[in-house]
Amino acid sequence: MINRSVISSGTRLGRTRLFSSSVPSYESTVKRIGVIGAGQMGLGIALVAATVAKLPVTLVDSNELSIDKSLKFMDKLLQKDVSKGKYSHQDSEGIKERIHTTTVFESIFDTDFIIEAVPEIVSLKTDIFAKLAAGTAANTVLSTNTSSISVTKIAAAAKGAEHRVVSTHFMNPVSVQKGVEIISGLQTSPQTIATATELVKEMGKIPSVSTDSPGFIANRILLPYINEAIICLETGIGKKEDIDSIMKNGCAMPMGPLSLADFIGLDTCLAIMNVLFTTTGDTKYRPAILLQSMVDAGWLGKKTGKGFYNY
Ligand code: NAD
Predict the structure, then answer these.
(1) 27 occurs within a structural domain
(2) C-beta separation of 310 from 294 below 8 A
(3) Within this chain, do residues 177 and 268 fall inside the same structural domain, yes or no?
């Protein structure tokens, strides 16, 4: 359960915060979670919330097909876990009952903590946060799962609710990866950070804090590594199998960088590299031309069946 201990704020983020009041105590108000986007991250977040935190979830997606695909995938995952003895058939039915899917965006408004997980496109996210600011209650936390976009910029779109915006950056696959980055914008209140941190813990995750800088910590390090692997492929330094093999078997990475790129989604990889490149202006972040070409071709990795490998 949520640890209701005292959480103070101030300089937890390693830089002076504009919002300087401290929070004397924390009372959980999260009784229902909303997730926007039923893609690989949104579904993963919804499942962990329903399974570990045992919270009811409203999962909204603008695309009915995405919801159908996710529900089928969820069934498969749950069946697998039941057959492995992770939990009973009855438990898995309970998890399914806790997740309510819909295409009606406004259904999300009566939840206490909303996590947005739509594609990594600035205008898509800012439009959503403007709507959330207008439609949600004054204490609903508005969180983004962005991989790289400025949380301050997203918060600025949530007019009147800027202090309620934060990022809970879950990693992929959500059920497996323990770490979650908590990133606050300049406007984020200590109370919002406290609620986000405790919820993440209640979901069985380990929060770590980073400042609102392009790519934050995880993708500032991970994506240039993946991009460099793609440049190695496009410049003929190695074949895809060799690039993946040496990083996996020689550098103890759990999977090769090109397989990882397929798994993340090449559109997401490109979007993150573009944010790093355009916000810093540093050419060391220039996206690989091959990455751009593959996205242009619609070869987005595992989710489209074709990327560096075929699925
Ligand atoms: P995805 O493409 O798998 O899913 C996105 C979903 O959002 C789709 O189902 C789509 O139909 C839906 N959507 C699009 N517009 C919408 C709208 N206006 N309203 C409601 N739903 C909408 O993407 P993903 O990989 O799940 O990534 C989602 C976010 O999480 C991105 O910001 C991404 O950068 C971030 N992220 C991704 C990974 C990863 O490994 N894929 C890891 C961490 C963070």
Answers:
(1) yes
(2) no
(3) no
Q: Among this protein's residues, is 89 annotated catalytic?
A: no
Please state the atom number of ligand 1 nearest to the C-alpha of residue 146.
Answer: 32
Which numbered atom of ligand 1 lies nearest the CA of 118? 7
Q: Contact at 8 Å (CB) between 187 and 156? A: yes
Same domain, 135 and 151: yes
- Residue 276 is part of which domain span? 219-304
pLDDT at 28: 64
pLDDT in tens, 27-55: 567 999 999 999 999 999 999 999 999 99
Convert the pLDDT of each residue in 217-256 to its tens digit. 999 999 999 999 999 999 999 999 999 999 999 999 999 9
Q: Indicate whether this model's pTM tops 0.85.
A: yes
Judgement on whether residues 61 and 201 belong to the same structural domain of the protein = yes
Max Cα separation, the chain?
A: 58
Q: Which residue, of 179, 211, 243, is where some domain finishes? A: 211
pLDDT of residue 29: 77
Band of the pLDDT at 99, cuts 50, 70, 90?
A: very high
Q: Is 172 an annotated catalytic residue?
A: no
Claim to verify: residue 178 and residue 294 sit in the same structural domain: no
Determine if ligand 1 sits within 6 Å of the CB of residue 119: yes
Beta carbons within 8 Å of 138's beta carbon, 6+ residues apart: 161
Q: Which two tokens stand for residue 17?
A: 């915060």
Q: Domain end: 211, 228, 243, which one? A: 211
